[in-house]
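3.2 Worked example (two chains)
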Amino acid sequence: HLREGEDEYLNDWKLKSIIRKYSDHITLPILMKKSEWKEGENGAGGEMVPTDKDESVNKASALWARSKNDITEEEYQEFYKHVSHDFENPLAYSHSRVEGKQEYISLLYIPSKAPFDLYDRERRQGIKLYVKRVFIMEDAEKLMPQYLRFVRGVIDSADLPLNVSREILQDSRDVEAIKNGSVKKVLGLLEDLAENKPEQYATFWDAFGRVMKEGPGEDWTNKDKIAGLLRFASTHADNETQNVSLKDYIGRMKQEQEVIYYITADSFAAAQHSPHLEIFRKKGIEVLLMSDKVDEWLLGGLTEFEGKKLQSIAKGDLDLGKLQDESEKEAQKKVEEDAKSLVERIKSTLGESVKEVRVTHRLTDSPACLVAGEHDVSGNLARILKAAGQQAPDTKPVLEINPGHRLIERLKTELDDAKFADYAHVVFDQALLAEGGQLDDPASFVRRMNSLIV
């Protein structure tokens, strides 16, 4: 008996499509009468009519349920294209059977290219859930975390009920165990690529690296594994390619170096040319160059790696510790003492624009730079929040000056208060521009620059 308006279910094409969707892979064949096209009489239109012949509607087999030894590489690739609707071959895959408290089979693929909607966190993940080969649901988001939303494939459970719903998936311990096991399989697959097939891993990172950077903030259990898979640009190669792992960085650290240094910016060029790097370049200390917007999110969840703290070179009072000898420290103290009155005069001139003015330990060539407080958000993060329409904490930067620079020396000798104010504001505005910030009053900056030039 069919409800009114449900006549489409009398159509054998509709029935076959339902069978193929939900029961294509069960062990028993499902038979239906074969339909054939019959031409109408006297030029009338034809139609599909049932015959006495039986045909199997479903495949009655599941590739993932077969032994790995019986499956060819071509079959794995074709199945990936079937489940992912992708025309390209996968980059890698993992096929495993788990037995014990939980019994399930997983066949998980890493695509070779990113889908167009990869950065849409609201889209559902690409995992098909089966129970005893019966299709249950597509894009089962509870089986894979957000940062692995690019993974495609199937998971076939022998323990979940056939009437499982998304609500049951939400609270099921069985599902949580399947998810944890599947995540470990994917991370293990990526570790194998990174270690044994670096060129393939570079392809993966180019496609999915920004998504992987969401991981440490989402998956505390696997944070260290994910951190080991991350790649960054750095001053070691000084190019935009993200191919430096945290282990690579630690392996190249100076003997007395205790922390991993990094800088964030809204572009690679801004990071690469940041004045904050000057002392590090002079001393040959490597710095990670982070210019992806997600890097700020990443650093909120990743504060250390293998016992080494991650430290921004643009926040707090820079202390290079044992990387500086005593003579350098004594020289810095003398410079600070000599510049004390100048520092106070600049602070008085800039007023509420800055939290503090101090002598820099970072700069060798630039006149000044802006530094965030140790516990404040970085200038880069504040700009990202504002661009996204979110409230950014109202914090003031610290202005660090380089007394050895000619512009700062000019300030020191300027007796005219009006000219001194122009110089001081130009120094501040230049430091703001150098870190990628925007001027509140560009016209005043241009006026001051013009007056100083002529």
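3.2.1 Second chain
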Amino acid sequence: MENHIIRMFLNRAEKYGTREVFRYRNNKKSYLSLNWDELKRKAENVLNSLRYIGSVKYENVGIYSSNRLEWMVTDLGIMANQGVVVPFYSTASREQVKYIVEETGMKAMFVGSREQLEVALSLMDEGSTLKKLIIFDNYSGDDDRVIDFQTFLKQSSEENTRIKIEDVEPDYNPDDLATIIYTSGTTGEPKGVMLKHDNFMYCFDIHEQRLNVTDKDVSLCFLPLSHVFERLWSHYLLHCGAVNVFLENPREVIEVLPVVKPTLMCTVPRFFDKTYHGIHTELSKWPSFKQKIFRWSISVGHQAIEYRCRSRELPFSLKIKHSFANILVLRKLRSIFGGNIKAMPCSGAAINTDVLKFFHAMGIFVNYGYGLTETTATVSCFKSEEYFFGTCGTIMPGVKVKIGEQGEILVKGRSVFPGYYKKEESTNEVIKDGWFHTGDEGYIDNKNNLVMLDRIKDLMKTSVGKFVSPQKLELLLGQDELVEQIVVVGDNRQFVTALVVPSVEKLKSIASNTGITFRDDEELLKSEKIKVLIENRFARLQKDLTPHERVVKFTLLPEPFTIEAGTMTNTLKLRRRAIEKTYKQIIDNMYV
């Protein structure tokens, strides 16, 4: 019975043998393949080498690296040794790493690069629990606390002392912890979400009922493996026998898509927002007749999805128009993604419905859904045969959802986590009578679709007692091509304001076409004419809102919100409290 990740892995390795399972790039950027037999051997090497350095079962072991082949090999090897994998974002700050190391008491950590190694070594110098660091990159130093990955794997290579995964397999328990994933912490300190092997295995079963993934599929591993979305997905690909291609630098995604030509790729709304704006920026440079052809083709695509989202056949006349639109524009747009994409699971934040429809009109099935780390990712997602825009899709089979007080989404089932690591009080606050309280406001429509409205903690109440949804406003105003990022402010204030990171390049283009003069970017952003221009655009977008919901004032910021600045989480969510603290003076000035 497949009730454990490694038990499942053994069965697939036996089934597929010499077939490709992973694809990765070497130092020369050429793609190499790894087959199932080789993967099993490498995972077995990790298991044996962990035992060689004294790692015991149920021990917490860290992986602090960007996506790469070694990440998944190590993940499987740790779990094969009955260890608990504790992943770190490759962009995690020293303070975040220190907190997690101290709370989990880990002794061994796998690091990707020299930069991550230096962070870990500095913690060891302070008396951390860490005893051994294994680096994936080459290492030529003489610190005996550090060993490179290839040397580490050779430590237990003697056949007469090797343990096979099959030797450990009888001890595998579905209730054992597979991993502790720390939430990125949009507010407060991070919490370690404990997930069992049973959580993962149950999710594989219910995803199989919803998704059409086969052993002929190829997926690009783009999102960080340290996040539950990509982690669950990557193990689900193993479950399905599909090929996973690792992308170490996510900034190269558009560059590698035409090379890899994946059929699947997990992503987040921010990816589609940036791609959407990028396409329309290029469109604005085209001759007017080409722009008309583009818009006609997209409009035909929109007509087609009205039928496809209900599994209805296109009328003959629309089929003819769609075939022309496909040849003229849509097929070329899909080639940006490699030309073979059949589905792109998407979650992690709210998505603008117009942006979502645009990609569906192109012919890309963006499988939008809702989930959390605490629910082992997916709670709901689109069905390929029927889906409704403006929702987070249909609730997954076997997952129970109900709406509690304040419209809070509550979730129950085998996919729900057992609790936060070493935080019983926090666990008891969110799990009551078996129901996980998500902290998200939403509702279930009459088609069993889940609609997520906002984080309850993010809902703002103005000083005159009116409630405002910041997410609703940010999605509305964020669809303007001049807006790169936006954060709405207004809690306990007399009206709503916003911090806006504009597209400076687009503003420069407008300025040059309308005679607005400026010496540098700073002067451009302070231009009264630019301010009036954006005010007018915002006014058009907000015309249907009630007065108390509208952004009254805004400030243009010269720098973006970033992970490095502490204003975004590692999963590209806005850290509202940190932003409000960082820009307090600017915000206060809007209320003077």
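3.3 Remarks
The mean pLDDT is 94.
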